[in-house]
Each structure stands twice: as structure tokens, then as C-alpha cells.
Amino acid sequence: MPENHPDSNPSPYASLSAQLEQVTALNTVLSRLVAAVLDFDIFLKEMVAATLSYVHCDRVILLLVDDQETQLRFGLSNYRLPSPERQAHLEALRLAIYNADNDTLVNSWLAGNAVMVQVDLISPLSTGGWLAQLIQSAAFFSVPFI
User: Fold this and answer.
1) HSE toward the beta carbon, residue 7, CA cutoff 13 A
2) CA-CA distance, 83 to 81, in Å (whole number)?
3) How many CB atoms lie within 10 A of CB 90?
4) pLDDT tens sequence across 85-105
5) Is there a smaller number of Cβ atoms within 10 Å at the N or the C end of the chain?
6) Among candidates 51, 122, 48, 47, which has minimal Cα distance to 80?
């Protein structure tokens, strides 16, 4: 086939279209999985495993919106903190989201934005600073599923 034949140079849109089809198929499978999994604990474990696999991080902590949608609470993590007291505090965690006017991290989450939190760039009294101290991390990347 000649080099300049239309079929020898696939359109960049063909690749994009194929990727869109794959993502759509994955979305369909995940939607069916969510509908099929009636055990919420199994769903949380699968969510942690998928996050570890796709994001390639070493720690995942899921925070869930409570039934009244007023606060985030601890859902699950793949990592236990070295201190039993800190682990208990993490598992008892409740972050208010309904009245977070002055909290840039919570407001970013509510807007659907992912946020990189670096302790040396924020106040230790902020939600991000407090959470980083609790989980003993100098930085963490947060992604809302709200």
C-alpha cells in the first residue's frame, strides 16, 4: 500500500475513539460490579485495591460521606498507623463538610478537585495539616469521590 494511502496513516481520532470505547466498557463493567456488590465492606476493599493498582501509591485511606452528608468519616485503609492511639483517632475521624467556608481543602473536595497537600506549605491547624500529622505524612494526594 502506498505511504500516502488514507488507510496507512490512521487518524489520531481513531485511537482516541478506541480509548473512549475502552473507558466506556470499563465504566459499564464497574457500574455492574457496584450494582452486584451488596456487601459494602467488599466494595470498599475493592476500591482500595483498585486505587493501589491504578494510582501506584503505597497508602490509601478512604473517607466516606455520612448518611446526612454533613461530614466525612473513615471508611477503610490498606495501612495501619504504627500507634494504636493514632489508628483509633483515624478510625473515629469525622470532618465537617456542611459548613467549611474557611477550609480550602474541604472546599476543594466539595468542588470535585484533587489536591496535593504538603505540610510545609500549609498551616498545621488546617484540615490538611491536621490530617497529615494524624497519618504521619509530610505530603499526601487527595481525590474526592463525592
Assistant:
1) 2
2) 6
3) 19
4) 999 999 998 988 877 777 888
5) N
6) 48
What distance lies between CA 122 and its chain's CA centroid?
Answer: 21
Q: In angstroms, rounded to a whole number, what is the distance separating the alpha carbons of residues 70 and 47?
A: 22
Rounded-to-integer distance, Cα 109 and Cα 114, Å: 7
Nearest to 128 by CA among 109, 105, 146: 105
| Grid cell in block for residue 12 | 489520531
The three three-digit cell numbers of residue 53, written as one number? 493498582
| pLDDT-derived band at 59, boundaries 50, 70, 90 | confident
The amino acid at residue 3 is E
CA 2 to chain CA centroid, nearest Å: 48
